[in-house]
Amino acid sequence: MPRSISRSLIYLILIVIGICFLIPVYVMLVTSLKPFDQVSLDHMWQLPKAIDWGGYREAFSKLAPNFMNSIYLVVPATLISALLGSLNGYVLSKWKFKGADWVFIIILFGMFIPYQSILIPLIQFIRDIGLYNTIPGLILVHVVYGIPITTLMFRNFYASIPDALIESSQIDGAGFLRIYRYVIMPLSVTGFVVVAIWQFTNIWNEFLFAVTVTSSDKQPIMVALQNLAGSQVVHWNVQMAGAILAALPTLLVYILLGKYFIRGMLAGSVKG
Amino acid sequence: MSEVILTDKKTPARKTTLGSKPRKRKRMTGDRWLALAFIAPSIILIAIFVYGFIGWTGYVSLSNWNSFLPDFSFAGFDNFLYIFKDFRFQADIRNTIFFTLFFIIAVVVLGMFLAIFIDQRLKGEAIFRNIFLFPMALSFVVTGVVWRWVLNPSSGVNLLLEHFGIHFKWYTSTAVYPSLHIGAIDFGIPAAVIALVIAATWQQTGFSLAMFLAGLRGIPEELKEAARIDGASEWQIFWRVILPQLKPIMFSVIIIMAHISLKIFDLIYTMTGPGANFVTDMPGVNMFETTFKSNFYAQGAAIAIVMLVLVAIFIVPYLIRSRKGDA
């Protein structure tokens, strides 16, 4: 086949699949901008006759408190778990002790388990320490179950820092903490960006812990969105506007810092 | 790729300074203790929250705690026997099998071909890449809400399909093909699962695309050039040179997708729920509803343990293998 024809064919295939991928976005945007009397199953493909922000207003008034809950959850949880992961990664890559690699594998298994298998004791535990239905309770959960992925990401990141750098700092008389603070930390900026973006996205999008640890007024945005969508009385335009509002922060992060998001994804990433 | 990433080639820096400097060595060991002290909290947390809690769930699964009030009297394997006889759980297993199968095939095939196409130094490469990748930044809840609307049987893509005389009921269909009677259920491919596969594939293809793209960029150009000089056609180069190089990546993508699929909860819960006759139910949804809606804690725990075992079958050999690659 001549090269130009096969290239056009490739473009054609990519464009067709690309359009398929954008269909949900189109439908979501179009529906969210319609007044609810125009939202009907028969007309879902049509553009709105006039742009109407009513759906957004209603979605915003319903979801705003939960949006803030998610912010209060995601910011501390991301910072703490990134710091913890960085320390763990530093120890497991530069201060390997006997059996360190096995310890790493044992920690790593924690990110693959179905969380259903720890949920019953977890809820019991969170109740017992008085953090049930609180944001700090959810922060704790996300920090703990974030340890495997953040440790993995930082360990691999630090593996690229030459050991000779650590050794020469030791000869200069620097200890564990000084090396971390003055050698590792300054070299970790990219690592922190990648891990923070990853944790931010995952915790923002997480649902299972959110729906079991919190109820009503403490719920993060994804639970509120699900409740919004689950109720029969809420119109589709409000649901779609709500979905866009809920997706906006992670989508913005992807648009602005996509490169780092993909790096995180490739660093042994797992969703769900 | 993640195999490469799970391991590193460096050996530990155990080159302590010469034994003739006792002062230095003493501080070194002090630092080693400090390092251990810093990682100890994480190890303890994982020991309790992962392994301890799994043990606790196992204990609950063997108890009689099937009401609101905890009851830890020993029930043996009654809960497991119950769920395996249960219509709903049998349907879950059927749905999981077909969902996992189709989902993995779709994500691997679509991701790989898109990666190969995008790797051809196209104009607008970044645009294409981003179109396929952005759903990865979205939550399964958002995906579920949107696709429930797009695939709504009385609207959505069906309005387009009806022009061609096709009537799909998508996730509301209760049809199962070929509907063999096995156990309490009709075994076969539940039509409704296809809708879930589409939504999940839409979201996760970006991951496989990024993995394959990274892999393709890692194949040395000389390798393809050499094959070309030897007179291989582009097709032969794909089968004989590129595909073998992508094998480890394909393996990683399959493992990671399999474990996502076995645990899946949010997407199903928001998009369809268990569905009529449980045609779209999955173990994760069943566990959640059995435990937290109906208070059958012991049965819920039993389902959770089955899920864990299924995931472990895929993941443990994968982790051990990556550990061996380290040595």
Automatic annotation (TrEMBL), chain A:
Chain ranges of the ABC transmembrane type-1 domain: 67-257
Main subcellular location of this protein, as a coarse class: membrane
Protein's membrane topology: Multi-pass membrane protein
GO biological process, one term: transmembrane transport
Subcellular localization: Cell membrane; Membrane
UniProt KW keywords: Membrane, Transmembrane, Transmembrane helix, Transport
GO CC annotation, single: plasma membrane
Pfam families: BPD_transp_1
Transmembrane intervals: 9-29, 71-91, 103-126, 138-158, 179-200, 236-257
InterPro entries for the chain: MetI-like, MetI-like_sf
Family statement: Belongs to the binding-protein-dependent transport system permease family.
Protein's UniProt name: Sugar ABC transporter permease
From TrEMBL, chain B:
UniProt membrane topology term: Multi-pass membrane protein
Ranges annotated as spanning the membrane: 33-54, 97-118, 130-150, 180-202, 249-269, 296-320
InterPro entries tied to this protein: ABC_transporter_permease, MetI-like, MetI-like_sf
Principal cellular location given in the protein's record: membrane
Cell location: Cell membrane
Swiss-Prot/TrEMBL GO biological process terms: transmembrane transport
Pfam family, one: BPD_transp_1
Record GO cellular component, one term: plasma membrane
Keyword Transport among UniProt keywords: yes
Keyword Protein transport: no
Record's keyword terms, sorted: Cell membrane, Membrane, Transmembrane, Transmembrane helix, Transport
Residue ranges annotated for the ABC transmembrane type-1 domain, each copy included: 93-320
Family, as annotated: Belongs to the binding-protein-dependent transport system permease family.
PANTHER family: ABC TRANSPORTER PERMEASE PROTEIN
Name of the protein in question: Sugar ABC transporter permease
